[in-house]
Amino acid sequence: MSTPPHDGSDAPDPVDAPDAAHPTPIVRAPKPPRHPASHPARRLQEAAGSAPAAESAPADAPSASADAATNEDARRIVANRDAYVLRVDTAAVPVTGPAVDDSASIRSGDAVESAPEHALVSDAAAPDAPAPNAPAPNAAAPDAASVNASASHAPAAAPRGRRAPRRTRAPRALRTRRQKWIRGLIIAAIALVVVVVLSGLAIAGIAVNTLVNTVSAQPPRVGTTIVAPDESKAAKAAAAETPGSAEQAAAAYLAAQPTAYWLTPEQDPIGEVYDRVAHLATEARAQKASLAVVVYGLPGRDCGNHSAGGLDEADYVTWTTQIGQALAAASDLRKIVILEPDSLALAPQCGNLSDRDTQLRGAVDVIAGTNTWIYLDGGHSSWLPAAQMADLIKSVGVLDKVRGFATNVSNFNTTQNEFSYAHAVAAALGTGHAIVDTSRNGAGPTSDNQWCNPAGRLVGDKGGTYGDDVVDTNLWIKPPGESDGTCNGGPDAGVWWPAGAVALTQGLVK
Question: Bridge-partner residues for 145, per DSSP?
Answer without folding.
Answer: none
